[in-house]
Amino acid sequence: MFKLAFICFVAPLFLLFTNTSSSHNTSSSTNCPTYHCKNGPNISYPFWLSQGSPPDQYCGYPEFGLICSDHGDPIFSPPPGYYYYVKNVDYGKHSLNLVDFDTANQTCPRALHKVPLGNLPLSQSSLNLNLGFYYNCTSYPSGVPSIKCLSFGVKESFVFVMGNETKGFDWLENCEANVMVTVMKDQITSDNGLMHQFAGAISEGFVLEWRTSSNCVECEASNGLCGYSNTRKEVLCFCNDGTTRSNKCDGGSSTGLSRLIIDPSCQGLFSSWRNWGTADMHPTLHF
């Protein structure tokens, strides 16, 4: 009887102690580190480096995982198949400067697509300007300068600041392709200089601003840093007190705590303790 009572009393306390300790061993500094590729800016929350994160979980927005290229440059791939160099990140202004992988540092770039933001927590910056490219036009107004390095036989290609196309001509009807490309405003000084400036502007990239991910609103509102568990398929919140919780820090369940499973024989013993009339015989147990 004494042996059973000892086990039933000590086991819950042992489990509670060990689980509470383990929940405090995951600090935000450990789970939300700053990464760095060979080149480029530091990679910090809400971004994370996929090569350096634990396989089961990471700290950062699910959409903001970065990789390091073979040459040591940080690469952002918003949707799969689209790749951008991360040239700079301003964590104070929540903005990042991206350069299209396919057109970077080309003297005569042919942009293939616009920036595919989709449902990502990203938006265009007011620092940006949109250019419209019209490729392989079979007919075009006289006097409009073409992009000579993109000429293809009798077909010519053109670029305009969006909205400033030659009026009264159907560019979409007479050209094989039309692509909108985003650059920074300060890279284009005038429409007249566009023909000589667009290549350099594309190489300098554009600016996007991020907002709180919809999955991370509760976590950040509770002063936590948001992450995700690939194992449990749930949002994590890394808290200032060192715990890792589900969804948010205040009131969220700690992922380090386990449920205590009480053996039926112990349950019977606890019931007996409750029924004993002497107050001194009632141990204080917290579950």
TrEMBL record:
Domain spans labelled Wall-associated receptor kinase C-terminal: 155-242
Topological type in the membrane: Single-pass membrane protein
GO MF term list: polysaccharide binding; protein serine/threonine kinase activity
GO CC terms in record: membrane
Signal peptide: 1-23
Keyword terms, alphabetized: Glycoprotein, Signal
InterPro entries reported in the protein's UniProt record: WAK_assoc_C, WAK_GUB
Reactions this protein catalyses: L-threonyl-[protein] + ATP = O-phospho-L-threonyl-[protein] + ADP + H(+); L-seryl-[protein] + ATP = O-phospho-L-seryl-[protein] + ADP + H(+)
EC supergroup of this enzyme: transferase
Primary subcellular site in the record, as a coarse category: membrane
Subcellular location: Membrane
Domain Wall-associated receptor kinase galacturonan-binding, residue spans: 32-100
Enzyme Commission no: 2.7.11.1
Protein's name according to its UniProt entry: non-specific serine/threonine protein kinase
Organism name: Abrus precatorius
